[in-house]
Design a protein that fits this description.
Blueprint (H helix, E strand, L loop, with lengths): L2 H43 L3 H18 L4 E4 L10 E4 L6 H8 L4 E6 L8 H7 L3 E3 L3 H16 L3 E4 L17 H9 L3 E7 L1 H4 L12 E5 L10 H20 L17 H13 L2
Parallel strand pairs: 1-7, 2-5, 2-6, 3-4, 3-5
Antiparallel strand pairs: 6-7
Helix pairs in contact: 1-2, 2-3, 5-6, 6-8
């Protein structure tokens, strides 16, 4: 079949698949509601935080199984047995449930403050010991101090350092909170890569898709000794480079003091601009 014939057949194929996609979306919604209300009940009556997190892990796995989204965790043995900070790329609303299903129940999620006012979700997140942080500059310092206290007390944390996600593939700039927490605690920082969640639940689209999901744990990075002003950016750049290399998606942007890989378009643009400014 020629390319032109394929282009002509594509709308007919989409028309044929539309009822199947709608049926799957309805099934996924029913599964989400059933599992979600079960999780709410369990979290409401379970008294201890480790047990609540274990219950959330089981219900997240149940939803992914029912929704035909099989999850594979690669290199789980790379997670340190003790305290650590996990940082992961962010691509979809599915990322949180997938990490809940994949990681041991000793981890607390660090989540934007806006989620603290979302009905039901806020209750679930609080019962799981999640940490809410502001993204406006007036509250950042207080939130940072609270996170650093938790890190110094031995808590393991999970961050999405991009802070947001968009439909297009790629990795945005990383905020520094996760890396400051790891440096302050002197614990390993573990980069991780999620694959498949953007396709399964694309931001801005209502209909999910079945298919495999994968979490790959990358080798831990030990913070370099020295002043935090130097160790935090170095740790951030090392983790971001590792995630970009493993994920294979575009480098969408970097923060001003982030090292730009030399073969990327932003790096070439920065070198060109620098040469124009040179007398």
């Amino acid at each position: 079949m020629t390319a032109q014939a394929l282009r002509r057949a594509f709308p007919l194929l989409m028309l044929f698949l539309a009822p199947l996609r709608l049926a799957y979306a309805l099934w996924a919604a029913v599964c989400f509601l059933a599992v979600g209300f079960t999780a709410l009940a369990l979290l409401a009556v379970t008294p201890q935080l480790p047990r609540r997190r274990a219950a959330a892990r089981h219900t997240a796995r149940a939803f992914l199984w029912l929704a035909a989204m099989p999850l594979t965790v690669k290199h789980e043995e790379r997670l340190p047995a003790g305290q650590c900070v996990v940082v992961c790329n962010h691509a979809s609303y599915l990322d949180g449930p997938v990490l809940t299903a994949a990681l041991p129940p000793r981890f607390a999620f660090v989540i934007k403050r806006e989620m603290s006012v979302v009905p039901l979700a806020a209750m679930v997140l609080r019962r799981l010991g999640s940490q809410f942080v502001h993204r406006n500059r007036t509250q950042v310092s207080a939130d940072a101090r609270r996170l650093l206290r938790n890190a110094s007390q031995g808590h393991s944390l999970v961050f999405f350092p991009e802070g947001t996600f968009v439909p297009a593939p790629g990795v945005h700039k990383f905020h520094t909170g996760a890396f400051a927490s790891a440096v302050r605690a002197g614990c390993p920082l573990v980069p991780a890569v999620l694959r498949g969640t953007r396709r399964a639940l694309t931001p801005g689209l209502a209909l999910p898709l079945p298919g495999p999901l994968e979490l790959e744990i990358l080798p831990p990075i030990t913070p370099a000794p020295g002043a935090a002003s130097e160790a935090v950016p170095a740790l951030r750049d090392a983790a971001r480079a590792a995630i970009l290399a493993a994920l294979g998606e575009p480098d969408l942007t970097c923060s001003d003091d982030t090292v730009r890989p030399p073969d990327t378009a932003p790096a070439r643009s920065a070198r060109a601009s620098s040469s124009l400014r040179t007398p």
